[in-house]
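2024-03-11 09:14:02 DEBUG pipeline.ingest accepted 1 chain
2024-03-11 09:14:02 DEBUG pipeline.ingest length=303
2024-03-11 09:14:03 DEBUG pipeline.predict start
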Amino acid sequence: MADAPPVEIRALTKRYGSTVAVDDLSFSIGAGRITGFLGPNGAGKTSTLRALLGLVRPTSGEALVEGQPYAQLSDPLGTVGAVLEADSFHPARSGRNHLRVLATAAGVPSARVDTVLGQVELSGAARRRVGGYSLGMRQRLSVAGALLGRPRLLVLDEPANGLDPAGTRHVHRVLTGLAARGTAVVLSSHRMDDLAALCSEVTILATGRVVFSGPLAKLVADGDELDYRLRTSDPAAARRVAAETPDLVVLADDDRHELVVRGAVPVLDDLVARLVGAGVGVREFAPVVAPLEAAFLALTEES
């Protein structure tokens, strides 16, 4: 459907017997964005994604891909690539043969197999049996399968699970490159550091309902207070500057090198400016709890 968003959830409800997994859920996701899809266990994330991918039937409402239910898409693999589980492999097949089976079933040219293997840096392991792959390698193979059809929407559940730091960085590069070329990417993950590094938009569920949906930058408002850990070259001077900074609260002081302070974003910025102006070297100024995680906990614990 022309101009329809890649993902549109309209008044979606899904019940399993007397249990309401998703309750009148509505949100949309635009093209060319990486959107974090978050929620505590049992919040309804999996049920929503499964409804979007046609794996479960909604009790009421709609889950649409480019304006249509998944079952009505004329080119499913070219529209959506998805990884909800990373263990649907025959252990005796090589990574390349696994992808060849998928490509043949979907009518994708076999040449595409080596292209996606290269994208996820598995070319060197393409002939190895999947049964000998590590968890991270199986995760990357799943992502490769999702990319076979050059989809305009990519839905990934815990894509960095099992990846080492180098593998995580590479997956990040792949996803940001896809988004830059217009692909909509939906990431469901419990790794807040990954989401904070990648996502421009966030949708958060709690007890089957949306508690936030919008730009990541708006999730932590300037008026929200955050706790930050401060280490400096001159602890005595830092304590003095902190005491003179309006609206800043010192939560902890170990009398050596570290302060824990609380303030709104402008107040924290003011503290750093005052420290620099006083010639105090700032060695560490980091959130005690990452802003995304703090906002997530506040939203979901209140629901």
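2024-03-11 09:14:41 DEBUG pipeline.report The chain has two domains: 7-219, 225-302.
2024-03-11 09:14:41 DEBUG pipeline.predict end
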